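HUMAN: Can I see a protein plus its fold?

ASSISTANT:
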Amino acid sequence: MKVKTILVSQPDNKSESLPYQELQEKHKLTIDFRSFIHVEGLSAKDVRNQKVDLNKYTAIILTSRNSVDHFFRVAEEMRFKAPDTLKYFCQSEAVAYYLQKYVVYRKRKIYIGERSFKDLIPHFKKYKEEKFLLPCSDSLKPEVPEVLDGLQLNWKQAVFYQTKMSDLSDLRDVYYDMLVFFSPTGIRSLYKNFPDFKQNNTRIAVFGNSTLKAAQDEGLRVDLQAPTPETPSMTMALDKYITEVNKGK
């Protein structure tokens, strides 16, 4: 069957949706965005209850833009002014770039990975004496503590925000040829909102091995997976897949 309509289970972020717009125009598709999950921040009191004193740390580990937002939100609530000497270890360039929303780049010590968390290992090894704080969500990837513990760093994990499933009831009678997922929580949100969901002819695309496993655990047929060496992004994978399945139809 031809793919004409796609629902991407993420918010419509203008800075990141350009590849999807190009995909839409190239294949004459309808692509909609809808976040299946959302983030809720914990209060400064909740963070303090985890025995977190921001003054005790010399380095902050930031794995996402959400971690940036909620670290500085909680810091403001705690009336903590980040000193110029505080080091920031950012998982990717995107996270580091977003950090500029809160700090002046040239006055800060910022260390950047390429893409995966393991890319930060050389930086961690160079600054093993720091006291690291990892502000994160309640669904942290296992890889993160494995890396930090493996390096025997002095670090603490603290939940600054929680991932919640969004209300999707208005989509009950809306159907798409393909659903695109980026996290196991997105898959869980689908079934929380629609416990009687039947895949039928709906194609499922997933990003990452953990999302793939969550989909398979629910008995879903996964038609497309990214990243791969050939298609490192979801839009590249979609382009290749749609070119093949829509050919001559």
Observations:
- Residues 40-163 form a domain with the Rossmann fold fold (CATH 3.40.50.10090).
- The longest helix spans residues 65-77.
- The first strand starts at residue 5 and ends at 8.
